[in-house]
Every structure is written in C-alpha cells, then in structure tokens.
C-alpha cells in the first residue's frame, strides 16, 4: 500500500458453522491460545483432541471469531476451511486481513467472504480490497468445487509490490 507501513492482523470471523485447520511452522507445540485470541462467544469454539482443528459455530444469539495475537507487515497467510453444509442462506463466513483496528476508518483490508447459499446452489466467495478505508473492489467468484465436502486452502500473499 504505497510507502506507508501497515501492521496487519489475520482475522477470521465465523458467523456460520465453520471448521478450520491450521499449522504453525516451527512451533509444533503451539496451541490455539498461544497464537490466537477469540473474539465473540468463547463457548462457541471447540478444539479437536490433537488441537489442530477448531470448530466454530453460531446459534440464534451469537457467533464467534478469532484473530492473531501477533501483527505482521507482509506475509503469506493461509487457512484451511471446511464450510458447513446444507442451507446457509443469509450467513457470511469471513477470513480477512486488516490493518490496526484503531486506524479505522482509514484501515487497509483484504477480504474473503464465503456467502451462504440455498441447498443445491453454488457457493460464492466475495473478495474485496480496502485502501485507506475505501473499498469498491468487490468481486464474486462461483466455486467449481464443494467447500463443504473437505478442507480447502485459501491464501493471501501480500508483499510490498503485490497482493495475490
């Protein structure tokens, strides 16, 4: 984003049932709590026995999310997600990068938003890029695979010259 330096934090907001699996390079003994903090209802997060899969869900009162404890200038950020199946119309599951929240409304942000759907309809990912608080770069992508059938990796490469 030009010559400005931005500290970024990886965030995932789960407002739908969502399964995710992460691994930490060089930190095999790391736990979820070592690397992330829960935002929202802490009782809406369950962890697998091996600590590598986290189950996030919502009910009719609340959802849940989490964010990294560390901040990053640039990097390769990826997450393995398996979305909930069946009718999820009206629900959005998001995975995004955002500059310091205190910088709002002048924040920079990169979004992956998994839009809910009716059973049998294709799943859509909506992406967006914000610079200095201005978005307007929304794009919708119809998925050619079923994101509820298995884990799939979604990644962002962000460096001083490119966002991929």
Automatic annotation (TrEMBL):
Gene Ontology MF term list: hydrolase activity, hydrolyzing O-glycosyl compounds
Species this chain originates from: Panicum miliaceum (Proso millet)
Pfam families: Glyco_hydro_16 (PF00722)
Active site per UniProt: 109, 113
GO biological process: carbohydrate metabolic process
SUPFAM superfamilies noted in UniProt: Concanavalin A-like lectins/glucanases
Domain GH16: 22-164
Matches recorded under Gene3D superfamilies: 2.60.120.200
Protein name: Xyloglucan endotransglucosylase/hydrolase protein 8
Coiled coil: none
Signal peptide start and end residues: 1-29
InterPro entries found in the cross-reference section: Beta-glucanase-like, Beta-glucanase/XTH, Beta_glucanase, ConA-like_dom_sf, GH16_AS, TAT_signal
Keyword set, alphabetical order: Glycosidase, Hydrolase, Signal
């Amino acid at each position: 984003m030009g010559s400005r330096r931005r500290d970024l934090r990886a965030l995932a907001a789960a407002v739908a049932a969502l399964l995710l699996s992460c691994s930490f390079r060089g930190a095999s003994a790391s736990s979820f709590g070592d690397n992330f903090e829960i935002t929202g209802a802490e009782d809406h997060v369950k962890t697998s026995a091996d600590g590598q899969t986290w189950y996030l869900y919502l009910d009719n009162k609340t959802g849940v999310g989490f964010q990294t404890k560390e901040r990053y200038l640039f990097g390769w950020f990826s997450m393995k997600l398996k979305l909930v199946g069946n009718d999820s119309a009206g629900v959005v599951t998001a995975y995004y990068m955002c500059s310091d929240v205190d910088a709002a409304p002048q924040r920079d942000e990169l979004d992956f938003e998994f839009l809910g759907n009716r059973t049998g309809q294709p799943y859509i990912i909506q992406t967006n890029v914000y610079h200095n608080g201005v978005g307007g770069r929304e794009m919708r992508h119809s998925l050619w695979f079923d994101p509820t059938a298995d884990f799939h990796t979604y990644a962002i490469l962000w460096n001083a010259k490119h966002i991929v």
